[in-house]
Design a protein that fits this description.
Number of strands: 19
Largest sheet: 6 strands, antiparallel
Helix content: 25-40%
Distance between the termini: 50 Å
Shape: elongated
Length: 420
C-alpha cells in the first residue's frame, strides 16, 4: 500500500524536477487550467473557469463570466502560490473576490511579473497566464487516484475519505482510511465497485451516484489519454450537492506521444528551465547539466551513472548526464554534441557506448559527422563496445579526426581526465 501511495506522490513531485536518472523519461508538464480543460473535455465536473493573459480579450472574458465569487490564480508549475510574493511586491498568487471589477486588476498585478514561492527558484517564475475560476463552497474533501502499478500489472484505484491533505500521512496514521481497487484496463469499472468506492468516500444520498459517475469518467479519461496517473485531491462535495474535481495532477506515458500529439503540444517549459534540457527533450535525449568540465555522452542511465563515477574516481568532474537511449539515430548524436558543446564549461568529451540495441557504427558515424559539422576543438575520447564495434572503430580511424579511442571504461576516464 505504501508503495502505491509513494508512486502517486512521487509522480507528482517529478513533474517539477529535472529528469530522473533511472530511465529515459520525459515528464509532461501541464498548467492547472490545462489539466482542468482536459478533464472538462471528458465530462468530468470541475469549476467553471476563464484564462486571462493581458490580451484585449480579457475584458470580454471577465464580463461574460458571472459568479457569486471568483478565485484568481497565477498559473505556474509550482506549489505554495497562495503564500507567494511577486517581484513587484504584490502578495499572493491566489486571491478570492466577489467583486467582478477586481478580477482584471488582480490579474494585471500578476501577469508579466515573477512569482516567488517555496517551490520556485529564488528569482521566481514568470506568470504569463491567470486562471479565474468559480469559487465553490466545499463541505467535504476526499482523495482519489488512478495510476499504473507494476505490482498489480495494471491500473489501480486508490481512494480515501481524508482528502485535501498528505495522503502518505493518512496511510501511515490511519491505514483503514485507504482503499485500493485493482482495475481492468480493457473494461469500465463495474457499477457495483463504483458505488462501493463512493460509499467508502462517505458520500451519501444522491451524491453516491454522482461520485460513482465522476470516477467512471476519470477512468475513461485515464485510458483515453494514455495517463499513468490521475490524482484528484480533493474530490470535493459542495454545499449544493455537487461532486467536483477541484485539483488534478496528471502524468502521461511519454511513449504514447505519437498518438497524444495534441496533449504533448501543451507541454509547458518554464522560463527558468535549462534551455539545453528543453532542446534535448525535443530529440528524445535525456540531459541534466552538472558542474564539471567533462561532457558525457552515454547510452543507458546505469552506464551513464557508472561513467560519471569513474570520471570522479580518476580526479575529473562530469559536466552533465546525457543518455541518448537505445534507439538513437545519427542526427540525435549530432544534436547531443551540439548540446554538450553549448556548455562553456565543457573542456573535453567522453563517449561511452555499449551497443546492445544501439548499433556502434551509428554512433561512430554520428560522432564523425558532429565533429566535422561543429569543428570540434576540445579533446574527444570514445569507448565503444558491442554490436558492430569493429566497423565502428574503422569509421573513427578512417575519419582522420583526433579522436582518442579507449579499450575499457577505466581507460576512457583516465584519457579524458588526462586530456584536460
Amino acid at each position: 500500500m505504501s508503495l502505491l501511495l509513494k508512486a502517486a506522490t512521487t509522480t507528482r513531485q517529478l513533474i517539477h524536477k529535472a529528469p530522473v536518472l533511472q530511465q529515459q523519461l520525459r515528464y509532461l508538464n501541464l498548467l492547472e487550467f490545462q489539466s482542468k480543460d482536459l478533464l472538462q473535455k471528458y465530462g468530468v465536473a470541475i469549476q467553471q473557469f476563464k484564462v486571462l493573459d493581458n490580451s484585449k480579450d480579457d475584458t470580454q472574458a471577465v464580463q461574460s463570466f458571472d459568479c457569486d465569487e471568483y478565485v484568481v490564480k497565477a498559473q505556474i508549475l509550482a506549489g505554495g502560490r497562495g503564500k507567494g510574493i511577486f517581484d513587484n511586491g504584490f502578495k499572493g498568487g491566489v486571491h478570492i473576490t466577489s467583486n467582478k471589477s477586481d478580477v482584471l486588476s488582480l490579474s494585471k498585478q500578476m501577469i508579466g511579473n515573477r512569482l516567488i514561492t517555496k517551490q520556485t527558484p529564488k528569482s521566481g517564475i514568470l506568470v504569463n497566464k491567470v486562471m479565474v475560476a468559480r469559487s465553490v463552497n466545499i463541505t467535504r474533501e476526499t482523495y482519489l487516484c488512478i495510476l499504473l502499478d507494476r505490482e498489480h500489472n495494471g491500473p489501480v484505484l486508490i481512494a480515501s475519505p481524508a482528502g485535501g491533505m498528505d495522503i502518505e500521512a493518512v496511510a501511515a496514521e490511519t491505514p483503514e482510511k485507504i482503499k485500493t481497487v485493482p482495475l481492468s484496463i480493457n473494461k469500465p469499472i463495474p457499477e457495483a465497485v463504483l458505488l462501493e468506492v463512493a460509499k467508502f468516500l462517505e458520500f451519501k444520498g444522491d451524491t453516491v451516484q454522482r461520485c460513482a459517475d465522476e470516477i467512471q469518467k476519470l477512468y475513461t479519461l485515464f485510458k483515453a489519454v494514455d495517463a499513468v496517473q490521475i490524482e484528484i485531491n480533493p474530490l470535493a462535495e459542495t454545499d449544493n450537492g455537487e461532486v467536483i474535481s477541484v485539483d488534478a495532477k496528471l502524468n502521461f506515458d511519454d511513449n504514447a506521444e505519437f498518438r497524444q500529439k495534441d496533449i504533448f503540444a501543451l507541454d509547458t517549459h518554464e522560463e527558468d528551465a535549462d534551455p539545453r534540457e528543453v532542446e534535448a527533450s525535443k530529440y528524445n535525449l535525456n540531459y541534466v547539466a552538472m558542474d564539471g568540465n567533462i561532457g558525457c555522452l552515454v547510452n543507458g542511465a546505469g552506464l551513464a551513472m557508472a561513467t560519471m563515477d569513474i570520471i570522479k574516481l580518476n580526479g575529473g568532474e562530469p559536466a552533465n548526464f546525457l543518455d541518448v537511449g537505445g534507439g538513437v539515430k545519427e542526427d540525435q548524436v549530432t544534436k547531443a554534441f551540439e548540446i554538450l558543446t553549448s556548455d562553456p564549461k565543457v573542456k573535453g568529451i567522453l563517449v561511452n557506448v555499449f551497443g546492445g540495441i544501439v548499433n556502434c557504427a551509428t554512433i561512430a558515424n554520428g560522432i564523425v559527422a558532429a565533429s566535422k559539422k561543429l569543428k570540434l576543438n576540445v579533446p574527444l575520447v570514445v569507448r565503444l563496445e558491442g554490436t558492430n564495434v569493429t566497423k565502428a572503430r574503422e569509421i573513427l580511424k578512417k575519419s582522420g579526426l583526433p579522436i582518442q579511442t579507449a579499450s575499457d571504461l577505466d581507460d576512457a576516464a583516465q584519457k579524458a581526465v588526462a586530456a584536460l
